[in-house]
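Data availability (excerpt). The following record was deposited with the supplementary files.
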Amino acid sequence: MLPIAFQNGAFYENGRYSAHLQRTLGTVRLIRSDDLGQSWVYVGALPFEGDAAGLRGALPFGKMLELPDGTILMPVYGGPADRGAWALTSYLVRSRDDGRTWGDATRIAEGFNETQLLALPSGTLIALRRRNYEERQHLPDLWQAESADGGSTWSTPRRITNAGEHPADLLRLADGRLLLTYGHRRPPYGVRALVSHDDGRTWDKGQTITLVADAATADCGYSSSVQRDDGTILTAYYADRGGPLYK
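Predicted structure:
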């Protein structure tokens, strides 16, 4: 069973949302299960070392990815607490002992956060990451890069989605196509998807798929998709349906 990582204490105090903690970054703590989730063991706090040695806090995002050699990759992001979301940096941390210990952090890219990974049969890794801008009027979007060496180095990122379309979830379908789902965080709010027929080299933007368009505000998205054995695709997401947030 792969380990589960979770963020402790970023925006909540005693189980309730805390506005004054909204810009803080906490400690990434890890728990691990060897019995398919029936019981859990605390592994410890994620060490910030290597390229991430200067971090004082971080957040995990996206699915962990296991490489053919057993290495587990986990994307995290962090940055200076006094510079805002646009100054965050995306990193990878690795475990080579089935999630018991972690380290060997490498930097994916500065100015990005919330990274989603996908491994292709060729061994190439794809990373879709959210870019925030210092200018408040420019909404975040998604940029893509590839790695041919297990995530140690990455290609020059290129923009994939329009402003206000983020964050990403990636899934390789049974027929070989790639499915990218993301929050559509401008009217009409909801979740949309793109398909690639060539392992992510291009995305069919002429056939944008609208999954839902009934969210009340831009507080929506964060989708996660799986494909069932019968071919059905199940996508989970969240959306604000109106009313006070964070009661």
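Summary of structural features: The first strand starts at residue 4 and ends at 8.
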